[in-house]
Amino acid sequence: MTPKHIPLNVGKQPGMIKELLIFVIVLFILTGCNWENNSSKTEGIVTYAIEYPHQAEQKGFTAFLPKEMITYYKDDHFKLKFKGEFNIYNLEFISRSQGDTCFTLFKIFDKKLFYSMGQNEELFLFNDLGASDLVIFNDSTKTIAGINCTKAMLQFEDAYAPDIEVYFSEEIKISRPNRHSPFSQVPGLMLEFSMEYQDMHLQFKAQNVSFKKIDNHEFHLPDSYKKTKQDEIKDLVLTLLQ
What we know:
By secondary structure, the protein is α+β, with helices and mostly antiparallel strands. The protein has three helices and twelve strands.
């Protein structure tokens, strides 16, 4: 009786299979991380902390003001979201199709309003600062929320308007990320900047940048909102400061 042929490496096969599986898993993780860190930079979420001036903190009304601003972006769409404490109110700004379609949305308790903005109209949160020049300091950089940023300065023609220092990054791929604001000249998403609103100096700084898939519904206008004028939304927001 002729004995069956037994492969010489039969005892090594389980170990070889295990090593192959580990190699495949590691390769998948590495390629997956590479995709996440590159391709998905066209969409994601940036969360900013908002710092209020000490004088406003002393008055006490900042307890009702948002502690953070959240930016959702996807290709040429983006949304800014301010959410109040205890879910009392919600203020959003949506810009789609590179600014051709823009909405301001405001919800306070059960009242839901929206205003359809013009293509070149600025969000009412920004004071009218007039024309400005942008100076970029390519040799002045820092890392904010893990993203490399470049310093820039906005210098306004109005002698009473102070210069505004910003840090921006072009690593995050948003088309015209600063449209509808005095910062429209800044070529990348700002991760640190300041603004004046109702005599308050507000400081914004990114705390977290998450590259992830964003559902298109984030940029849709909800059916439950009623159309109004911008002044009504503006006046309602001002009541939070009184």
